[in-house]
Amino acid sequence: MHPARFAYARPADLAEALDRLAGSAAPAVLAGGLDLVPALRARKARPDTVVDISAIPGLDYASLRDGSLVAGATARQDQVLRLAEAHPGFALLAAAMRTMGTAQVRRTGTVVGTVMQADPALQLAAVCGVLDAIVELRGPEGTRRLAAASLFAGTRLPHGTLAVEIALRPMAEREGWAFARAGLREIGGHLGGVAARLSFGADGRHVADAVVAPFVAGHDGSPLGPVGAALAGRPLDPDTLRDAEAAARAAVRTTGDNLSSADYRRHLVGVLTRRALAEAAGRARRNPDV
């Protein structure tokens, strides 16, 4: 199937891009195109104008700023992955990104574009919730910053808004992390998974803080608050892990499809939560400077 007709714009700067977005009734932004191009061909997306931001200078960076990892709107996934792999504080991000498609896909896709898809079943839904990711937006209302997790929860942006940057915080000292997924292949499609971070109190035994966020069909990527509540102040023993698993199953929202039922996914998130917390605890104990 061929795409429906649309106008194409390739602005030379950010101001022109914002003008084209604001002046179109149903615009779409093209950066890497991994999501948009297939949607256009299948006519799942029918914009009146496609605004290609790939020629705008100054948006293709990935760097550290004040400790956070920041990436511009056209920074490729492989750029961000290399940076994350070079800095231990972003090991969770690196682990998640290594499962996001093939090397060829990562050379084309952008991190900001993936986040703006706002698909809660994608790995970055959970990572953004655990690492408190912030997206910088430009639009008719000026510049604003928004928690990336709110996009996965369904927050609608004003017409003409463009995401220009994402910032992810590093893991804090003495925090452990884990990323776990279950899928049909090592990369690509999956049934679900979780991202977790955990820290112990001064005694090194009782949990001070824990955050677990799932990425699974039906959930919005937000952290599972009852899991953190089930862990707070307790030693991470088998009983505590069982309680966390039960809390995860009760809190997560799932849907079924041709790959698995909603009940199976709910059970899966519980099991992966228990395993991820045990793994994160091991890292927190071994690595005081995570």
Question: Your description of this structure?
Answer:
With 290 residues, the protein is α+β, with helices and mostly antiparallel strands. The chain has 3 domains: 7-52, Uridine Diphospho-n-acetylenolpyruvylglucosamine Reductase, domain 2, CATH 3.30.43.10; 62-168, Uridine Diphospho-n-acetylenolpyruvylglucosamine Reductase, domain 3; 175-286, CO dehydrogenase flavoprotein, C-terminal domain (Enolase-like, domain 1, 2-Layer Sandwich), CATH 3.30.390.50. The chain has 11 helices and 11 strands. The chain has helices at residues 14-22, 36-41, 77-85, 91-97, 103-108, 111-117, 123-130, 148-152, 225-231, 238-251, 262-286, and strands at residues 7-9, 27-30, 49-52, 62-65, 68-72, 134-139, 142-147, 162-168, 175-183, 190-200, 207-215. A 5-stranded antiparallel beta sheet has the order 4-5-8-6-7. A 3-stranded parallel beta sheet has the order 1-3-2, covered by helices on one side. Strands 9-10-11 form a 3-stranded antiparallel beta sheet, sandwiched between helices. Helix 9 (225-231) packs antiparallel against helix 10 (238-251). It starts with 6 loop residues before the first strand and ends with a helix. The model has no long low-confidence stretch (mean pLDDT 91).
